[in-house]
UniProtKB/TrEMBL annotation:
UniProt name for this protein: Tryptophan--tRNA ligase
GO cellular component, one term: cytosol
Family: Belongs to the class-I aminoacyl-tRNA synthetase family.
CDD domains reported in the protein's UniProt record: TrpRS_core
GO BP term (any one): tryptophanyl-tRNA aminoacylation
Binding site for ATP: 8-10, 16-17, 160-162, 203, 212-216
GO molecular function, one term: tryptophan-tRNA ligase activity
């Protein structure tokens, strides 16, 4: 069992990134560790493993600033390690260091059909009205995504709703390639199965409950950043927008109160409780009581993360070493597949 998953490098990481994305990876890693431990010696699950990569190659499909991309890649790597991705248990690397990703994409471009890519709804969404001005990379990046997982013979790929179509494409490419260029008993590529990522919370802005918490919000008070110190966290929670009503005792009482619902959702996600469970503890209380409690839980969760995060960002050598080691491990798995692909194509 081998799970492969990528994440876009992004800077100014915040609580939404942690609860909505990064924490899921830590959970997948831990789940994989448990499976490996429980598996019989000699069974396939004994080697259960996660490969996590920073999708820096994908970033060039959109206009980007090189220095900013490098910074965001390092920042995301630091955040992943700070949040619990253990480079000795999972393979953690950035795509650009493993040249096989870009190479395999080219090789798979011969198999992918124009018609298949034309059907990808994400290209339509991301290119918008400016189809002619979009980069070729934006059009073909689902083929890079196929390369990302096929390169490692991934058996399982976590995909949300928006990525289902791209995994289908990866399977179609693998199947057609195996069909056209390999014998039935010696396929070059494994067809990866989709798995649903653990349910993730959607965290809203602390200043406006109708907007997602986001790095691009001009107000820093709208988000808790992973690097925020305890005083800053407490201050942001204290100033978070709310309403004068006390908390209800059930979630349906928060229907028209997005800011209140958001704060309770954050508390629930951090403590692994349901919103109803949190409300059964805090129902009837006002925010004068709830906010300090939320602030404390946040500080407790974020303190070790922000310490490790800022520590790693200051120790560039350690961070480079983690990524270099991950890339070396990734190459070991990737190169045999890449070689087999060249060979199958008569190259
Ligand atoms: P931002 O919205 O700040 O630009 P990105 O788009 O770079 O963040 O998202 C990186 C990852 O974090 C994605 O997997 C995304 O789904 C997740 N994410 C970002 N913001 C939130 C949020 N407010 N709530 C939950 N998940 C989020
Ligand atoms: Na975004």
């Amino acid at each position: 069992m081998r799970v492969v998953s990528g994440i876009q490098p992004t800077g100014n990481l915040h609580l939404g990134n942690y609860l909505g994305a990064i924490r899921n990876w830590v959970r997948m890693q831990d789940d994989m560790g448990e499976r490996a431990q429980a598996a019989e010696d000699g069974s396939a699950e004994k080697n259960a493993q996660c490969l996590f990569f920073l999708a820096d190659l994908h970033a060039i499909s959109m206009p980007h600033d090189p220095a900013e991309l490098r910074r965001a890649t390092l920042e995301m790597a630091a955040a992943l390690v700070a949040c619990g991705i253990d480079p000795s248990r999972s393979v953690l690397f950035n795509q650009a260091q493993v040249h096989a990703h870009a190479e395999l994409q080219w090789l798979l471009n011969g198999t992918a059909r124009m018609g298949w890519l034309n059907r990808m709804t994400q290209f339509k969404d991301k290119s918008g009205k400016n189809r002619e001005g979009a980069s070729v990379a934006l059009f073909t990046y689902p083929v890079l995504q196929a390369a990302d997982v096929l390169l490692y013979q991934a058996t399982h790929v976590p995909v949300g709703e928006d990525q289902k179509q791209h995994l289908e494409l990866a399977r179609d490419i693998a199947q057609k390639f195996n069909n056209d260029f390999a014998s039935e008993d010696a396929p070059v590529f494994t067809l990866p199965e989709p798995i649903s990522p653990p349910q993730a919370a959607r965290i809203m802005s602390l200043r406006d409950g109708s907007k997602k918490m986001s790095k691009s919000d001009p107000s820093e008070m709208s988000r808790i950043e992973l690097a925020d110190d305890p005083d800053t966290v407490m201050k942001k929670i204290k100033k978070a927008k709310t309403d004068p009503e006390p908390l209800p005792s059930e979630e349906k009482g928060l229907e028209d109160r997005p800011e209140a619902l958001n704060l309770v959702t954050i508390y629930a996600a951090l403590t692994d409780k349901s919103v109803d469970d949190v409300l059964s503890d805090f129902g009837g209380e006002g925010f004068g009581k709830f906010k300090p409690a939320l602030g404390e839980v946040l500080v407790e969760t974020l303190r070790p993360i922000s310490e490790r995060f800022t520590g790693l960002l200051e120790d560039r050598e350690a961070l480079d070493a983690i990524l270099a080691r991950g890339a070396a491990q990734a190459r070991q798995i990737a190169v045999p597949t890449l070689d087999a692909t060249y060979k199958a194509l008569g190259l």
